[in-house]
């Protein structure tokens, strides 16, 4: 059940609402830390039940994410009405190694924007999943504000 934050007027989204919004997206941002330096990468992704899955080639993104704690964020905006939402997940990015499981994941609606084989599959099973929604411009934010 959603709640309105009395201080900010933002709607706090529950787990199911966050999953529903994630299911509408195909592009998110993966946050990793490499040598004490935070880095953020855009990634195409899909939901597999409650897990976020994506694939990539070997490189900085996979190096920073594989078998490490990561953050993942997706959002949507409506510039006309000054509204939007954001969902943030945290968890460990685990490499999917089983060939049958990779074949199954390959049937998910997951396109890629950049060329290349992208043979490495990673799965984030969220430990936390939080979301916020900005109500449309002019929408009453909370009682008495």
What does this structure look like?
Strands 1, 2, 3, 4, 5, 6, 7, 8, 9 and 10 form a ten-stranded antiparallel beta sheet that branches. The protein has 145 residues and is mainly beta. It has one domain (3-134): Pnp Oxidase, Chain A. 14% of the residues lie in helices and 46% in strands. The model is unreliable at 141-145 (pLDDT under 50). The two termini are 22 Å apart. The longest helix has 8 residues, at 15-22. It has three helices and ten strands.
How would you summarize this macromolecular structure in one to three sentences?
14% of the residues lie in helices and 46% in strands. The chain has three helices and ten strands, in the order E-E-H-E-E-E-E-H-E-E-H-E-E. The longest helix is centred in the N-terminal third of the chain and has 8 residues, at 15-22.
Q: Which fold name is given in CATH as the topology?
A: Pnp Oxidase, Chain A
Helix-strand string: EEHEEEEHEEHEE
Helix content: 10-25%
Quickly give the CATH architecture. Roll
**Apparent shape:** globular
Structure characteristics:
145 residues; mainly beta; Pnp Oxidase, Chain A; 10-stranded antiparallel sheet; globular; disordered C terminus
What's the arrangement of secondary structure elements?
Blueprint: E1 3-4, E2 11-13, H1 15-22, E3 27-34, E4 37-44, E5 46-48, E6 51-56, H2 60-65, E7 68-78, E8 83-96, H3 99-105, E9 120-124, E10 128-134
